[in-house]
Amino acid sequence: MPAPAPGYVVLLPVKPPARGKSRLVGIESHERADLARSFALDTAESCLAASGVGAVLVITDDSFFAADVARLGAAVIPDGVSGDLNATLVQGSLEARRRWPELRPAALCGDLPALRSADLDAALTAASGHPAAYVEDAAGGGTTLYTAPHDLFSPSFGPGSAAAHREGGAHPLAGELHSLRHDVDTLEDLAAVRGLGLGPRTTLASVRVGTPG
After folding, report:
1. CA-based, 20 to 30 A from 77: which of 11, 84, 110, 164?
2. pLDDT per residue over 72-123, tens digit each?
3. 199 close to 46: Cβ distance less than 8 angstroms
4. Which domain holds residue 164?
5. Does residue 1 belong to any structural domain of this protein?
6. Range with the lowest mean pLDDT among 75-79, 100-104, 135-139, 191-195?
7. Burial 109-119 (b: 16+ CB within 10 A, else e)
8. How far is CA 47 from CA 33, 67, 192, 211, in A?
9. Does residue 2 belong to any structural domain of this protein?
10. Is 48 a member of any domain?
11. How would DSSP label each residue in 131-158?
12. Would 153 be classed as within a structural domain?
């Protein structure tokens, strides 16, 4: 499948790593923060390498993480509505429209440490044929990617998000898309995606917490 022309801006919301990934239990708080930061940086780098992505806009209130991800080439804005993911994404889409009016917004989870650019490109290519589209997570019921033109952009992340996106008129994208469907909330999730190939930062962070990838 040919890669799409750069027609998307990926919106990547990232909680401050020190507060994120509370379900990574059984490790120290600094190790949890290290993993959360690594997940997000590996996700951002894969997005930046995708042929269909013209820009990546990270939304975060963590200044240290913002500097790290900006060095990769992503744009960064603060989260003006912290605590409401969907409102954060709408805020991001408005800023993206101002900066890159020709790019269609695509909201993506920031915890896809095994993400492959080819899977993202395949999803974006398929999504371009629908007014709105989403990718359901491997566990079923959740969403890892949602995209729609600016005038239709209405994300519904949270419990039951796949059904909410479908009921809102978004098309579920088929295909394996393994690395795009596997977000990581727990150490068990991390173990499950090792076979897909973890990103370099997550691999190192996994070794540091004693869970080699």
Report:
1. 164
2. 999 999 998 878 999 999 999 999 999 999 999 999 999 999 999 999 999 9
3. yes
4. 8-206
5. no
6. 191-195
7. bbbbbbbbbbb
8. 21, 17, 21, 25
9. no
10. yes
11. SSEEEE-TTSS-EEEEE--GGG-----S
12. yes
